Amino acid sequence: MDIFQMERSGYGSKRFPKLVVSFLVAFCLLYMASMVYRSSTFVLIGEVAKDNGAGGVAENATTPSESEDKHPSGTESMVVDKLLGGLLATGFDEESCISRYQATSYRKTSPHKPSAYLVSKLRKYEDLHKRCGPNTESYKRALKKLSSSHINGTTDCNYIVWTPSNGLGNRIISMASSFLYAVLTNRVLLVDHGTDMAGIFCEPFPNTSWLLPKDFPLTNQFYSLQPGNAHSYGHLLKINNMNISAVSQPPSFLHIYLAYNYDKHDKLFFQDQNQGFLRKVPWLILKSDQYFVPYFFLIPSFQQELGKLFPDKETVFHHLVRYLFHPSNQAWGLITRFYRAYLASADQKIGLQVRVFDRKASPVNVVLEQILGCIKKEKLLPQVDEQKPIASPSKNQTLRAITIASLYPEYYERIKSMYWMKPAVNGDVIGVYQPSHEEVQHFGNNLHNMKAWAEISILSLSDVLVTSSWSTFGYVAQGLGGLKPWILYVPAGNHPTDQPCPRGMSMEPCFHFPPDYYRISNTRQRLDSGSLVPHVRQCEDASKGIKLFNAKQL
User: Fold this and answer.
1) pLDDT tens across 445-455, in order?
2) If I label 394, which of 71, 74, 114, 417 is the partner at 20 to 30 A Cα–Cα?
3) In this structure, what are the phi and psi dihedrals at residue 35, rounded to the nearest 5 degrees?
4) Which intervals of the chain are annotated as region Disordered (predicted)?
């Protein structure tokens, strides 16, 4: 029976609506199934991308491209994140310094936000630096003042020139200190990076440079910057019987020597009554290897301004180091390649920095015992299972990656071997890595400094950080990462200590060699009691040093 016959018999007219309804139902079911499949496919792709696309993202952080996906409604929140709450300025060529705006995507978001007053002050400083920086008319006029023995009247731009001393960690903390002094005293900071620091950092200020021009006329004096130097501020005080008011006219420049071995005259730089005279000197040439910021909080004329800049005293270096120091593209390549290869997929990243100043006084086995005692006592890593050769399967298995930064390979080799030969008792997978082991600290070597800066930055990406006592290398890492470290006391002798690595109370660096306050202020008060100001106290790792604390958390 063909269709025409069905229609004539009435059969086709009854069947046709049923066919249409069946077709429509089937079509709807197929459409819904396709959408479910499509949705599940996107979820699967998303999960795979989440698992495999960790080429440079820390926990609670995203790469720039992922950030755009997470902020589809606009870019305001993304910009704030890139600029670290307004700490960083806009107006840079991003390709010339990729790390400036990308580094924040490799570490957890800092809970420490800069004050609005600090942000405003930094923008004003950037304007000043642009107006007075190298090769500007103001700079050229200021250079002419250097040929005069004394200064009459005022100058439109004053400068502080930083010169290097000791290793990279010392240099970074002293540059940060010099910058804060420049901000407090309305000076322009210029830095002499020489050849061994060339190309390590990006320029920190937009549309200008902080690098001291190579033709600066006083460069030949930098090597003579030592205690008792004839052009130093300390010497000027000494020949005037400690009475700066006896100096009728300020000189065109002065040397400020604030390194570890400065003498009692150089230390008088920190006297409040002398700051007025120093403001009249157009050029200050500074040499230091110290983080001398804590003492600024004891100088009455600075205290009100510092209180507005840093309501949370523990965050001073955290903000300064993230503002000033950005890895160059070459250094950023070292950092990100290591991160992607070894750290990106880890559930927890642990940084261990081991600095041994005297290997004879601190034998390898004793230091290693101290490290293992730290790990065990503070429960930073699981112990190994001495009974089972293979860990029991676990759904909650955690991948932990340890980065060891040390000049020497022995600590890395022993810890790596320990977790390779035996499983962790809780089934965790432990990866142990060391970027380099130079054996000797090479002063004046650009590649050595480049590697050191990369390792400092890698340590700063950790979730948990252990640093060595007295180490400025570790200070910089904890400041960049906003981390309160466990402080590893490197034993001097044949026995580890009972307290291998107590937790630091502050993420601020220590000022190792501050002047005695009673000598500066002519009082009998000491610095270590917190009686002068509650937020300046004795360092955990240096009994004669001082550092900044958040007084509310003490």
Assistant:
1) 999 999 999 99
2) 417
3) -70, -40
4) 55-75
- Name every residue whose Cβ is closer than 8 Å to that of residue 485 and which is 6 or more positions away in sequence: 465, 466, 467, 474, 478, 503, 504, 507
Region of residue 145 (left: phi > 0; alpha: psi -120 to 50; beta: else): alpha
Contact 87, 322 (CB under 8 A): yes
Beta bridge partners of residue 353, listed in sequence order: 405
Report yes or no: 507 and 526 within 8 Å, Cβ to Cβ: no
Reported residue count of the chain is 554
Radius of gyration of the chain (CA): 30
Say which amino acid occupies 499: Q
Question: To 5 degrees, how large is the angle CA 46–CA 50–CA 56?
Answer: 145
- Half-sphere CA count of 91, side-chain side, radius 13 A: 13
Residues near 22 by beta carbon (within 8 Å), at least 6 away in sequence: none
DSSP-based three-state secondary structure for 543: coil
**DSSP string across 215-239:** T-TTGGGGGG--TT-TTBHHHHHHH
Task: State the first-to-last Cα distance of the chain, in angstroms, to the nearest integer.
Answer: 97
pLDDT digits (tens, 9 = 90+) for 498-521: 889 999 999 999 999 999 876 676
| Amino acid identity, position 154 | T
How many C-beta neighbours within 10 Å does residue 420 have? 12
160 touches 288 (CB < 8 A): no
Residue 149 structure tokens: 């023995």
Instruction: Report the chain's mean pLDDT, rounded to a whole number.
Output: 85
Contacts 24+ apart (CB under 8 A), 523-532: 527/298, 530/554, 532/298
- What was the pLDDT predicted at 516? 87
Contact 491, 371 (CB under 8 A): no
Q: Is the pTM of this model over 0.90?
A: no
CA distance to 351, 411, 495, 528, per residue, from 381 (Å): 12, 15, 22, 34
pLDDT number for residue 120? 98
User: Range with the lowest mean pLDDT among 169-178, 338-347, 519-528, 534-543?
Assistant: 519-528
- Mark out the alpha helices in 105-147 (DSSP H runs): 116-132, 137-145
Q: How far apart are CA 533 and CA 431, in angstroms?
A: 44
